[in-house]
Amino acid sequence: MSPLAAHFSDKVWVAKLAYLCDIFSLFNELNLCLQGKMTTVFKLADKVAAFKAKLELWGLPANRGNLDMFQTLAGILGETEPERSFSWLVHGHLSLLLKEFERCFPTTKDPRTGKERIRDPFLNKSGESVQEDQLLEIANDGGL
């Protein structure tokens, strides 16, 4: 028997492997969402912002010992008694991932910030009543 096979009898090692399987599966889903011909910088920024929000959201139950958001890990931990320190390990890793995502995709340089007018040219902002009047005239012009 291979000496590496001993790792599969170590419950903590198998749980860590299951967590990595789940987290890399989520990274793969994000990666696939960021590809394609019919995408815009706004859609990409939305996907990254949503993933950052999910990382933050997943950290809350992980901090309390609830790891159900990771299916493979939850299945492994359902068969064994979960260790409280393992939940802290997952919570710490999610926090580090969130910091790394914030470093790579800072909120301050979000391409969506201040560009709402590009995404939705009919966005209603106060102080634009002249433009609104002109839009209403165009919208109600039957000849156009």
Automatic annotation (TrEMBL):
Domain of life: Eukaryota
PANTHER family: EPM2A-INTERACTING PROTEIN 1, LOW QUALITY PROTEIN: ZINC FINGER BED DOMAIN-CONTAINING PROTEIN 5-LIKE
Protein name: Zinc finger MYM-type protein 6
Organism: Araneus ventricosus (Orbweaver spider)
Lineage, top ranks: Eukaryota, Metazoa, Ecdysozoa, Arthropoda, Chelicerata
